[in-house]
Write a structure and sequence with these properties.
This protein is of the alpha+beta class. It is 58% helix and 17% strand.
């Protein structure tokens, strides 16, 4: 029997029992959809984080009181006991670092922004030294950034994110306008390029003011984060990082042999950690999806055994007309494989739709990996063929005389 004829017979058999076929496919659809959705979301998260951190520059690193990623309550308590990194620490590093192409510092709080009768809440209020927008790759699309004079004179000027522009200055040019940051008036001198959202949280709901102005309102005791630009990644960055580590230890009087009382993070460290977390999550979710596929395969095997029983007389007639055991086996393997492949196609579509729905509703980034689509289809078809071998073999071994007597 030709392969084309076998496929035609298999499809006719599946179409004749549409409801049973659909119910049988559910396990495969759920398994493949789970794999595709998880891979799409994990791939999107990794791509987003890598892009976001690389936008800061591979040659930029930070010095802070606490690491940007904390994995346990015990670590959090331990880091909390460290001394704050203060403005004099930053000035000491700024004055003595010879391998720093650029250096800045940032503090932040959450507060309320008011203009007239309108206001925003939960807004990030940032205190920046004048180089910080460039170190964070914040493009000023209107107006200007901070200058050394703004910092030295603690000027009451501000740069805003696009959320502030949209909510408080709709239809009005914000430049030169006044707003109140937790009650303190500032004049807007710049508007940043739209940053979008990260995992559903907007990155544009912020106001930046010169760090000395920020400290006049919120005090000088809060810890700050130092940003350093080395100029190049690799050995140049390592040299700058080593120099900054020595300078910060000196400024904070860390004893020789004692561990650092601060954290020095590079972008590669953060991206690597995040990738490790998402890979672990993907492995767990993939294991769950594999279980769903196995369950779907068992259902396919069960249905194929029922099909063999129902079509015993048909098998006997085909054998009497000259069909070889190999032809019978191929027919049933094609049926189980086709059934699983169709389930895989719907699973791929369903997985992509689920991932896109999560992106739309929760803002979680997603990127379709084409290798995962291919892998999902191969896994589905392989599952169908594997679990279809026993029913197909049983059908192929039927005695034609016994089969013809079946009712």
């Amino acid at each position: 029997m030709e392969f084309k004829e076998a496929v035609q017979i298999a499809l006719q058999s599946l179409w004749a029992n549409k409801l049973r076929t659909i119910l049988t496919l559910l396990g495969v659809v759920i398994g493949v959809a789970s794999v595709i959705a998880v891979v799409t979301l994990v791939n999107g998260a990794n791509t987003y984080v890598a892009t976001k951190f690389s936008s800061y520059g591979a040659d930029v690193f930070t010095v802070s009181k606490m690491p940007q990623i904390i994995t346990s309550p015990e670590d959090y308590q331990r880091f909390q006991k460290r001394k704050n990194i203060l403005f004099p620490d930053f000035k000491y590093v700024e004055a003595n670092c010879k391998h720093c192409i650029g250096i800045g510092a940032q503090q932040s709080v959450t507060g309320k922004i008011v203009r007239g009768t309108q206001s925003t809440t939960d807004t990030s209020i940032r205190g920046y030294t004048w180089q910080m927008p460039a170190l964070q790759n914040l493009n000023i699309v209107q107006g200007r950034g901070f200058t050394q004079a703004d910092e030295e004179h603690a000027s009451r000027v501000a740069i805003i994110g696009t959320d502030i522009q949209d909510h408080l200055f709709e239809g009005v040019d914000p430049l030169g306008q006044e707003l109140r940051v937790d009650g303190t008036p500032y004049t807007i001198i710049g508007i940043s390029e739209k940053q979008g959202s990260t995992f559903g949280a907007s990155q544009d709901n912020w106001v930046a003011v010169p760090l000395p102005s920020f400290q006049k309102s919120y005090g000088t005791a809060k810890t700050l984060t130092i940003y350093v630009k080395a100029g190049e990644a690799g050995p140049v960055l390592e040299t700058a990082a080593d120099e900054v580590r020595v300078l910060v230890r000196s400024a904070r009087h860390d004893a020789p042999g004692e561990p650092d009382s601060f954290e020095l993070d590079t972008n590669n460290t953060l991206v690597g950690f995040f990738s490790m977390v998402t890979e672990s999550f993907g492995a767990v979710a993939g294991g769950v999806a594999l279980i769903a596929l196995v369950v779907g395969g068992i259902v396919i095997m069960n249905i194929m055994l029922v099909s063999v029983t129902e079509r015993t007389r048909e098998i006997g007639i085909r054998k009497a007309l000259g069909a070889r055991p190999k032809d019978i086996m191929i027919q049933f393997l094609i049926e189980s494989g086709t059934m699983a492949l169709v389930g895989g196609v719907f699973g791929v579509i369903g997985g992509i739709l689920v991932a896109q729905a999560i992106t739309i509703l929760a803002g979680f980034p997603s990127t379709v990996a084409f290798w995962s689509v291919f892998a999902g289809l191969v896994m589905a078809t392989g599952t169908g063929v594997f679990f279809g071998v026993y029913p197909a073999r049983k059908a192929a071994q039927l005695d034609p005389i016994v089969a013809l007597r079946a009712e």
